[in-house]
Amino acid sequence: MPTRNDIRNVAIVAHVDHGKTTLVDAMLKQAGAFAAHQQLDDRMMDSNDLEREKGITILAKNTAVKYHPKDGGVPITINIIDTPGHADFGGEVERGLSMVDAVVLLVDASEGPLPQTRFVLRKALTARLPVILCINKTDRPDARIDEVINETYDLFLDLDADEDQIEFPIVYACARDGVASLTKPENGTVPADSDSLEPFFSTILAHVPAPTFEEDAPLQAHVTNLDADNFLGRIALLRVEQGELRKGQTVAWIKRDGTITNVRISELLMTEALTRKPAEVAGPGDICAVAGISEIMIGETLADPENPIALPLITVDEPAISMTIGTNTSPLVGRGGSGKGADAKASGRVDRKVTARQVKDRLDRELIGNVSLRVLETERPDAWEVQGRGELALAILIETMRREGFELTVGKPQVVTKEVNGKTHEPVERLTVDVPEEHMGAVTQLMGIRKGRMDNMSNHGSGWVRMEFVVPSRGLIGFRTEFLTNTRGTGIAHSIHEGHEPWFGTLTTRNNGSLVADRAGVVTAFAMTNLQERGVLFCDPGTEVYEGMIVGENSRADDMDVNITKEKKLTNMRSSNADVAESIVPPRKLSLEQSLEFCREDECIEVTPETVRIRKVVLDQKDRGRTASRAKKV
């Protein structure tokens, strides 16, 4: 079968923060993708604002480098897919793997294989892709290269890899310094026999199969991702499997439902470094982008009009977490975030999006490019159930929407259950925890409350312990804040979906109740001084609150209705503005993710472009009391 030796398609997969994007940066720089005068940022592939803020890759992105072999041969185009390391964005990984012929598995020389390493490797082995192992960060003082390689071999065996897949080449690298070697360096050192990524490039050329194709085969191209351009409209990113794709060509568009429509390719683009440039033709194995098809979707096929043959649709894992997203129903809807009355309303943004139609349209747009998301109708016309892989994926969606000007009400995250043989099964996670030895008991106790089952424990002799638990997914909702508190911020925890098991029973994940405002008004320092001994407050003085809004965490298990707007009155002994030297404990500011963790079943989150508030679902104090008394009688 003919091959195209001038192209290699490879994906870089790894756990979060093991150095994928940094390695791609170094490859781009050393392949001469940029001029000497260009100002280059770190992690150039993380172009999204949220990716830069959080330091993680959220969207799979592709780039291409022209590699000039040292022997003077023909330049070879290496198409690189930078995939997310977090399992919550697994849909991006599955799409990325459908575009390539091999993967580079990046593993930290100290941390070794972690849950997302298992996740992305399982996907690669299922797709029968060859693997190149790259041990990164060899210069870490706590590097343990030999043990990490042995753990990786164990992981391959655990995932039932065959003999061909286990015989993988190993490259040792320090991506930050742009150095790679085929010779194992000493622990904690940069490879000494190389000063570039040349050994890494040569390993890719030797072990990544060149794309194969059939002579005179009809056109087949698979849509794997979508993008948008202000001038070209929707852009479909695709890989040409057979035949050729040309600018101006008429092709058959095979939709997900099997219907076929003839369309014209108005623009053909090829990726070069971080930009797309116009091209005339794309052949087998090329990764290109086309414009001119306004409603094309991921997984569909472009084919020969005279002989249309569809490629298989891209399949992704089922969602495990859901939450209800609806319009903002609080008394402060549309009034801005500083919460200081009419001033905030007057200075608020005019493009605030608060209607049900706007929210639904935005969720429908998200479905176009996010194959791992589901949006279901609910009993209410202004709220929808959104299902995704994990809490982080849904939090990223909400954060993106609030930055676009949306005001939302978000319910507590719930797990997506399914019936197996008449019994309810819930999703479970494999949680890997790295903690100092002195916190081992606290973590074990924390997981016991959440019905976690310890599967494995290892001590590398460095004062740190690694424990693996199988725990129900709902036990991890609200886990991270408590975990960091119990380990004094030193613990590291990562989890990955492990399947479904029978319902674990009732879980109590939050022991403390809420402090709930019992009236509308503005928070006063006088009221905060009297209330701070009752618990931890969330509001600053001067913040506008409403009845049913949660203003703090109670030190006891039950909820407490409080008057946080109480003012100091004038008496016959002193004036109301006479100062008393009492200090206010700084309030705890909750991020969106922390608010989702804090939320209880009868609570929800109000999200606006400026602020995040937690509130009761039923705002009226008397109505909540009646509901509670009825629940006790039942």
Summarize the structure.
By secondary structure, the chain is α+β, with helices and mostly antiparallel strands. The protein starts with 6 loop residues before the first strand and ends with a helix.
Task: Provide structural commentary.
Helices cover 23% and strands 30% of the residues. With 634 residues, it is α+β, with helices and mostly antiparallel strands. The strands form 7 sheets. The chain has an 8-stranded antiparallel sheet, with no helix packed on it. Strands 2-3-1-4-5-6-7 form a 7-stranded mixed sheet, with helices on both faces. Strands 18, 19, 20, 21, 22, 34 and 35 form a 7-stranded antiparallel sheet that branches. Strand 4, helix 4 and strand 5 form a beta-alpha-beta unit. Helix 3 (90-97) packs parallel to helix 4. The longest helix has 14 residues, at 145-158.
Secondary structure elements and pairings:
Elements: E1 7-14, H1 20-30, H2 49-54, E2 61-67, E3 76-82, H3 90-97, E4 102-108, H4 115-126, E5 131-136, H5 145-158, H6 163-166, E6 170-174, E7 179-181, H7 198-207, E8 220-229, E9 233-242, E10 245-246, E11 250-254, E12 260-264, E13 267-272, E14 275-278, E15 281-282, E16 287-291, E17 301-303, E18 321-327, H8 342-347, H9 356-369, E19 374-377, E20 383-388, H10 391-403, E21 408-411, E22 414-415, E23 418-420, E24 423-436, H11 440-449, E25 453-459, E26 464-472, H12 479-486, E27 492-502, E28 514-517, E29 521-522, H13 525-531, E30 535-537, E31 544-545, E32 550-554, E33 560-562, H14 592-598, E34 603-607, E35 612-616, H15 621-633
Parallel strand pairs: 1-3, 1-4, 4-5, 5-6, 28-33
Antiparallel strand pairs: 2-3, 6-7, 8-9, 8-17, 9-16, 10-15, 11-12, 11-17, 13-14, 13-16, 18-20, 18-21, 18-22, 19-20, 21-34, 23-24, 24-26, 24-27, 25-26, 28-32, 29-31, 30-32, 34-35
Helix pairs in contact: 3-4
